[in-house]
Specification:
The protein has about 625 residues and is of the alpha/beta class. Helix content is about 55%, strand content about 5%. The protein has a seven-stranded parallel sheet, with helices on both faces. Helix 12 packs across helix 19 and helix 21 runs antiparallel to helix 22.
Length: about 625
């Protein structure tokens, strides 16, 4: 027996040499040369056939025989193949072979059945029952192994829900409203507006909605101004008397008095600040009503160059002296122009103070009694005036929101409500508008696909929009995404099945019928002559097992068929050994292959005219006997 083991390890060139030694053990032929060339190219390219590598590894590092399991279940070819990569089956009838092929098919294995004589696998195929015949093909499918693997995975994971995706239409992701937008819209629709029971809150949103963006921005700016100014009014420490005054001012009641008081108070403040550094002026008696006029005329006389005299006093001096005698400037009777000016300024302050007192009484405002009170009065009046102006602007804008606007601002309280409603609409929108928007989007989404083709997830998304339920809508989007993946998988499955149907219509139909079956495999049975296989070796991962019929009559070169699949079962039948060189069985025995006998144990008796019968190697022949 020729030693065909790999002597220099499992590197690429050693495997090529191993292939050459196998090919040299038998007959030469075009098929063998093609296989030898193809294997060498694949090995050098790093695509080492799994079955050939397993054989070389077993020859290089023989493993001890695997002990038989102690369970009560008898060993079968299918169970042994699951554990062993190299198996020799002898003494099995055709019915046993068919049974074994059915078991292998049930495990989802892609089995290639071959023999040197193409008629042998063809005859075995003819014995297949109808249930198995549907899985039989003459050639391996032209689908790429990766595509075939994906098809088998898609079929194995198929569910009834996924299979109906082919009859459904799912909306594209870009036509679905974003979940963030819907969440915001739902929040606005569910929001409770402060003062929603007021007429303004019910009417204003629809009016503002119809305005163009520029006009609405202007109205919103006025509303914000009212919020700031009236807010400042309400925060004033003098709100008790200031708010009623502004209330009247809004209705143009005592507007002139209010504005006059603002002006006089500012003048009085400025006058007090200027006079604070001058001499003290004290009144020593009652002051005549015309004192201001008399003193002002005398001051004018002096500033224009006139002089006071002791004799022949001018008229202005004579009229002013009785009045000036009632004042003391710095403790003395005023004589100089500076003293007279101080008295005149004092009289101006007193006159304005009396007028301020009168106006405060008219406006029901506390009278200021000192510089600090005066400053607080001025600040409060400015706050009130700003609030009144903003309310007036708001009344004007609201009046002209549209022809016959139903919204009015009759008073300060109404102005506050209207301003809040305007700002609330700008910041948060109208709940009713948000609800209408959700309903509109639900209506649009409901007609994206025909009703008869609508998926349940699509229906749930529409229902969530109508219910204004952001959480339910988000869940529906997640379900739609999963449904979209299912639909893509089902589309790919249908497309791959259609392509498979062009090569093997019966196999495609059988796989489709078994789609989703738990525990079922998606295998196939390919029956072809060995020369056909060797002439054009299938791509890697095209088959899981190669079954070689009539293995007893084959030389070791037939082991190039290990390039077809990762596992090999050599079936020894009634054939006679037809070679004196190294045989396939001798090499498998050297590789510690598992030897298994069929239940019938048929062994043909040798005759004088026959060639030598097939001899099962003694060291392995008992392994697996039933």
């Amino acid at each position: 027996m020729l030693d065909v083991r790999v002597s220099d390890g499992l590197d690429q060139e050693s495997l090529v040499a191993f292939t050459d030694r196998l090919a040299a053990t038998g007959r030469a032929g075009a098929a063998l040369r093609a296989a030898r060339t193809r294997i060498a190219e694949d090995v050098r390219a790093g695509r080492i056939p799994a079955g050939l590598r397993r054989l070389a590894l077993s020859l290089n590092t023989p493993l001890p025989p695997r002990p038989r399991r102690s369970d009560d279940e008898p060993e079968t070819p299918a169970s042994v193949v699951a554990e062993e990569g190299l198996v020799v089956l002898s003494g099995a009838s055709d019915d046993e072979l068919v049974e074994a092929l059915g078991a292998l098919l049930g495990r989802g294995m892609r089995v290639v059945v071959t023999a040197a004589d193409p008629g042998v696998p063809r005859a075995l195929r003819g014995r297949l029952p109808a249930a198995l015949a549907a899985y039989a093909v003459e050639e391996l499918p032209s689908l790429d192994p990766a595509e075939l693997r994906r098809l088998r995975r898609l079929l194995a994971t198929s569910t009834p829900d996924r299979r109906i995706r082919g009859r459904q239409e799912l909306p594209a992701a870009d036509v679905l409203p974003a979940r963030e937008d819907i969440a915001g819209c739902c929040a606005r629709a569910a929001r409770t507006v402060d003062g929603a029971d007021a007429e303004e809150a019910r009417v204003l949103p629809s009016l503002l909605r119809d305005l163009d963006a520029e006009r609405r921005a202007a109205v919103t700016a006025v509303g914000r101004c009212v919020g700031r100014t009236v807010g400042g009014l309400n925060a004033s420490p003098h709100v008790g008397w200031l708010r009623p005054a502004v209330y009247q001012l809004v209705h143009n009641v005592h507007r002139a008095e209010y504005e006059q008081l603002q002006s006089l108070a500012a003048q009085q403040r400025d006058g007090l600040e200027r006079f604070s550094g001058g001499p003290e002026v004290v009144e020593t008696g009652p002051v005549p009503d015309d004192a201001v006029v008399v003193v002002r005329e005398y001051l004018y006389f002096l500033t224009e160059g006139g002089r006071s005299r002791s004799y022949f006093r001018p008229a202005a001096q004579r009229e002013a002296q009785p009045v000036l005698s009632r004042f003391r400037v710095g403790g003395a009777v005023p004589q100089s122009a500076q003293d007279v000016g101080a008295v005149a300024f004092h009289l101006d302050l007193a006159g304005r103070h009396h007028e301020i007192e009168r106006l405060c009484q008219v406006l029901a405002i506390p009278t200021p009694h000192g510089p600090n009170d005066l400053r607080e009065l001025i600040d409060a009046l400015d706050v009130g005036a700003a609030a009144a102006r903003s309310v007036g602007a708001l009344r004007h804008d609201v009046l002209f929101l549209q022809q016959g606007s139903p919204v009015v601002v009759p008073d300060l309280t109404a102005a506050e409500r209207v301003a809040r409603a305007i700002v609330d609409y700008d910041e948060h929108g109208d709940p009713a508008e948000a609800a209408d928007e959700l309903d509109r989007q639900a209506d649009e989404l409901a007609v994206v696909v025909p009703a008869r083709a609508m998926a349940p997830e699509h229906e749930r998304a529409v229902a969530a929009l109508r219910a204004h339920d952001a959480d339910a809508y988000g869940e529906a989007l997640d379900e739609l995404e999963a449904a979209r993946r299912d639909a893509a998988d089902q589309h790919a499955c249908d497309e791959l099945l259609a392509r498979l149907r062009t090569d093997a219509p019966a196999l495609s139909d059988a796989w489709a019928a078994a789609s989703g079956a738990r525990g079922g495999g998606y295998g196939l049975l390919c029956f072809a002559g060995s020369d056909t296989l060797l002439s054009a070796l299938p791509a890697a991962d095209s088959a899981d097992l190669v079954v070689v019929l009539g293995a007893g009559a084959l030389s070791a070169d037939a082991l190039l068929l290990t390039a077809v699949a990762p596992r090999m079962v050599a079936v020894v039948g009634e054939e006679r050994r037809a070679t004196s060189g190294t045989t396939l069985l001798e090499v498998l025995n050297q590789a510690s292959a598992r030897f298994l006998r069929g239940r019938t144990g048929v062994v043909q008796e040798a005759t004088a005219d026959d060639a030598d019968p097939v001899a099962i190697p003694a060291q392995n022949s008992a392994r697996g006997e039933d």
